[in-house]
Amino acid sequence: MNTPTMKKWNNIGDWVLEKNNQFIAFNKPAGLPVQEDKTGDTSLLRLAEIYTKKKIFLCNRIDRPASGIVLFAKTKAGLESINKQFQFRTIDKTYLCIVEKKPAKEQDSLNHWIEKNGKINKSFIVPEKTDKSAEARLDYKLIGSSDRYFLMEIQLHTGKHHQIRCQMAHIGSIIKGDVKYGARRSNKDKSIHLHAWKTTVTHPISKKKILLEAPLPQGDSLWDYFAKEFLQN
Question: Which domains are seen in the chain, by residue range?
Answer without folding.
Answer: 4-228 (3.30.2350.10)
